[in-house]
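Office hours follow-up: a student asked to see two folded examples consecutively, so here they are.
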Amino acid sequence: MDEAGEQDIYKIVLLEAMMLVKQAWDAVSQDTIIHCWDHTKIQTVALSNNALEDPKAWEILHEFAASDMSLPQAEDKLQAYLGDCYKENEWCATFKAVMEAENDVEEALKALQELTRNISSSGTVQHAAILAPGPIAPPEELEDIEQDLQGAVNDLKK
């Protein structure tokens, strides 16, 4: 294609164009792609090597705090999600905070939120707002109880 004249450049067929694009893409190294993403600074949290900055990992911990999930189940789920990035010693404080709340969901969630505020890869707390998810929906059992209670209140008002 490089030796083609200016007139011949318009005679390319779709298959040739697709093959050229594939060859060009294959020539781009993984390091180049990583450098480009790092340069744009639009995925700093998602590309972080620090598992403690992974929002999905914190969602698992919030689920652990707000449900009847056992400690071994939570550890297994977190380890399955993080894979090789899971380091038990990094997560001890988070599991301990939830366990110390002793089935008090609000207290456990407050403890987790406090821990997310303290985490940062650069010494500042720039990602804390991203890491700390919004309020967690109450467990379904609680919603059912609230609806039953509201129904009873409505019946009493009649």
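And the second, which I mentioned at the end of office hours:
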Amino acid sequence: MIKTSSQAVPSESFAALFEESLATKEMRIGEVITAEVVRIDDNFVVVNAGLKSESYVAVEEFHDDRGQIEVKPGDFVSVAIESLEDGHGETRLSRDKAKRLAAWHELEDALEKGNIVSGMISGKVKGGLTVMINGIRAFLPGSLVDTRPVKDTTPYENKEMEFKVIKLDRKRNNVVVSRRAVLEASQGEERQKLLENLREGITVKGIVKNITDYGAFVDLGGIDGLLHITDLAWRRVKHPSEMLAVGDEVTAKVLKFDQEKNRVSLGMKQLGEDPWVGLSRRYPPNTRLFGKVSNLTDYGAFVEIEPGIEGLVHVSEMDWTNKNVHPSKVVQLGDEVEVMVLEIDEERRRISLGMKQCMANPWEEFSMNSKKGDKVTGQIKSITDFGIFIGLAGGIDGLVHLSDLSWNVPGEEAVRNYKKGDEVEAQVLSIDVERERISLGVKQLEGDPFTNYVGGHEKNSVVTGTVKAIDAK
């Protein structure tokens, strides 16, 4: 590179000195010299380096990041000698190589003096990331990306950041850089000032620097704070990425500060009022309201009744008759459903909700429309070891116990006369709404033959019969 005097020099004198220096200077391959742009055509930029003839350099070597030519005739540029005069008066020059050599000098200087360099993180490689610094590819180890371990480096890609050069081997084209060193150096003073003013209960601002499954780490300016997933919002958050992204600026409250370990716990939801306070007054038992299904599990569905407030509809409270159905067969995520508040435990932050309570109770309806002694008809739904279940109005079943099938034939034998799907008439024996049980009887339709016989004979009257069995006792 040409060093110029601090005093102003007329352009004619500078040009003369330039020509004189080129005429007396001994050229070497790889050397960087200064040339003047003479003209620009479609494919080449023609430069005058004081050689026997003008040199042609590919126009692409003069494009900026937007693809525009960044020089004009009369400009002086640095170029590197690729090959000396070949006998035809032509010496090959390269601006790219000159820029690359300058970039290496800058990196060597940065390593020696501890200067900070800027570069673009271009992609992932085994063990870390690649960084492009003025056309030089450098390696950023994963352990030096940040002051804390980073599992997912994707958010850092295609971003320009600052680094320190920690290792350089020009012969092997090997450059190693560290972003952590830059952060630690810049955070020193900020960290001390922050530690002096940090206390529980204050509101702070920071930048999200890393996201994990259990929360997000926020850079407060020299010290990191953990924003746990449970402190992001009063509502259920499945993953911190639903609310945050690396680089976001957030405001949070300091929940806990361990001065010995320099650990800070942060909360965003604590910036607003706790929606659980006074919930029992807002929603007393038996309150009916609408909510949105926010989560499904094997044991029930969670329904959000207001922002940050979810209640559980247990599978047993979803339907009066289908008690073992999977919740996904009844509702889907995002469905708006009507529910009834069954119980609220503000201390444990739990709400029990019911869906079936917003529908008519089929046992109550049956009890209102039928009474003991009434006759009913229905199809056999199932046959068990202890009786027959008959389908009734409202989707409920009534049980005919084996002992109520026949007066004369044992139940185990009588049940063989029935099969699933048969239409059966029976008499209502009892209705237990609370236990959701209805007892039916078939033999009661005919009346008790023993009672009928006794009713037809007076006391002390003589009767005639046949011996059916003898009991040795």
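Two things to take away from it. The two ends are 130 Å apart (CA to CA). Confidence is low (pLDDT under 50) at residues 1-9.
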